[in-house]
Amino acid sequence: MFARLREDIRSVFDRDPAARSAWEVLTCYPGVHAAVCHRLAHWLWGHRLRWLARFLSHLARILTGIEIHPGATIGRRFFIDHGMGVVIGETAVIGDDVTLYHGVTLGGTSWNKGKRHPTLGNGVVVGAGAKVLGPITVGAGAKVGSNAVVVKDVPAGATAVGNPARVIDGEQAQRREEKAGQMGFSAYAIAGSQDDPLAKAIHGLLDHAVETDRRIDALLKKLEQTGVSIEDELATADKFDPKYLSKIVD
C-alpha cells in the first residue's frame, strides 16, 4: 500500500509543476485522496462487501468532489488533477499512467447490465470537461481534448477533439503545422487551434465558393463591357448565402 502511495506522489510531481512537496501532495491533492479511497473501496467490492464499498466511495465523493464507483478498475500511477466533478462508472477500466482533469465523465449510454463504460489504455490523457461515453476503447497514449464528447473508439496515440469527437491523425496534424504553425497540445488536452476540424473544413469551402463567385461576377462584367451578352445562356441559380451557412457550422 505504501509503495503504491509513493508511486502516486511521484506521478503528481511528473505531471503537475505546481506540486512543491510530498506533504503538500499527500494533504492537499483530492485526486490522490480519491485514488487511495478507491483502492480500499475496490478491495471491499471485490470481497462482496458492496454496501460498505459504496458508502466509502460516497464519503470520498463528499471529501474530494470525485465520484468513482468501487467496481471500476484503475491501474497504477493514476492522476486526477484538480478533480472536482470527475465521474467514473462501475465498469470503467483505466490503465497505468492515465491522467484525467476536472469535469471528466467516464459514463455509460445504456441501462443494461454488463460492460457499459469506457476502457482507457496506458498513458491516456483526458482534458477538462470531456465526456467519454459507452463501452468504447481509448487506445494507449491517446489524448481527448477538453470538452470533447467521445462515443466511438479512439486509436492508440491519436487525438480526439470536438462534439461529437473526431480523430485528428498524425499526418493531418503535421500538415496543419507546416501550413498554419505549431499545433501543440497543452496539459489540459486542448489543441492549439480549438476550432472543430469539420467546421474549419466547411468554412474553408465556403470561403472558396465566395471567392469563386466574386471572380465569375468580375468575368461577367468584363464580358458585358466588351459587348458580349450571355444572359440567355445562363440559367437562374438559387441565391447563395454564405453568411447563413457559416452560422450553421459555427
Q: How would you briefly describe this protein structure?
A:
The chain is 40% helix and 14% strand. It is an alpha/beta fold. Strand 14 and strand 15 form a beta hairpin.
- Identify the quaternary structure here: single chain
Please summarize the sheet with the most strands: 6 strands, mixed
Helix content: 40-55%
Could you give the distance between the termini? 50 Å
The percent range for strand residues is 5-15%
Keywords, please?
single chain; 40% helix; five-stranded parallel β-sheet; six-stranded mixed β-sheet; alpha/beta; 250 residues
Descriptive report:
By secondary structure, the protein is of the alpha/beta class. It has seven helices and 15 strands. A six-stranded mixed sheet has the order 3-6-9-12-14-15. A five-stranded parallel sheet has the order 1-4-7-10-13. A hairpin with a 4-residue loop joins strand 14 and strand 15. The radius of gyration is 25 Å and the shape is elongated.
